[in-house]
Amino acid sequence: MKLDKKTLLLYAVTDRTWLNGRRLADDVEKALLGGATFVQLREKDADFDTFLEQAKEVKEVCKKYGVPFVINDNIEVALAVDADGVHVGQSDMEAGSVRERLGADKIIGVSTRTVEEALLAQERGADYVGVGAMFNTSTKLDASDVSFEGLKEICTGIDIPVVAIGGISLNNVEELSGTGIDGVAVVSALFAAQDIKKASEEMREKLVKIVK
After folding, report:
1. pLDDT digits (tens, 9 = 90+) for 41-94
2. What residue ranges do the domains of the chain occupy?
3. Per the residue annotation, which of 22, 140, 198, 209 is the catalytic one?
């Protein structure tokens, strides 16, 4: 699957912290029903088998809605489940070696904080970059890893799409207007919400106005 940057508009990153006995795939479906356009399965502490099981279930839901599905960090799980791609951090693996393992037709995203990191990711075959963290709290832009100007610099400095990430909520997402981002990646803004579908709808509504 080649990346269409429009699918990055509302990028949902999973977290099982808020499941309270529900199935992760069901919560992902609620987010997709509300308008999420991309899904990353993130399992920081799961063993291979648990991760793979979750990946199979979430992949089915994403397939049903025709939404790209990537795995966070774990290349082995991505290959085993034939995910649409992976998202890796700076320290996890260089985009070049990830591309070699996954092949030309998979989506690769890389976390970055500076123009230099973003340019390097682009050079090594990344399809998009995630930039952040943008907010340390749900309401303040200051004291974050990446400033508003820093985000803007990355957006203008590279040719591949940019997704803002980190502490983004319905309360602060409009502060990212004018930066040139192609979308935002959110975790708790969707999956910690009482009504995931509604949270997804409201976030998408705001993003349509912000992303030009």
Report:
1. 999 899 999 999 999 999 999 999 999 999 999 999 999 999 999 999 876 656
2. 5-210
3. 140
DSSP-assigned letter for residue 131 = E
Average pLDDT over residues 184-206: 97
The domain covering 5-210 belongs, at the CATH homologous superfamily level, to Aldolase class I (3.20.20.70)
Among candidate residues 120, 185, 199, 186, the one with its CA nearest the CA of residue 154: 120
For the question of residue 138 being annotated catalytic, the response is no
Report d(CA 205, CA 211) in Å as an integer: 11
Average pLDDT, the chain: 93
Catalytic, 147? Answer no
Q: Pick the catalytic residue: 30, 106, 111, 169? A: 111
Which of the residues 30, 42, 113, 197 is marked catalytic?
42
Active site residue 169: no
Residue 2 confidence class, pLDDT cut points 50, 70, 90: confident
Contacts of 49 (CB under 8 A, 6+ apart): none
Output b/e per residue, 123-153; b: 16+ Cβ within 10 A: eebbbbbbbbbbbeeeeebeebbbebebbbb
Mind listing the pLDDT tens digit for each residue in 96-143? Answer: 789 999 999 999 999 999 999 999 999 989 999 999 999 985 444 554
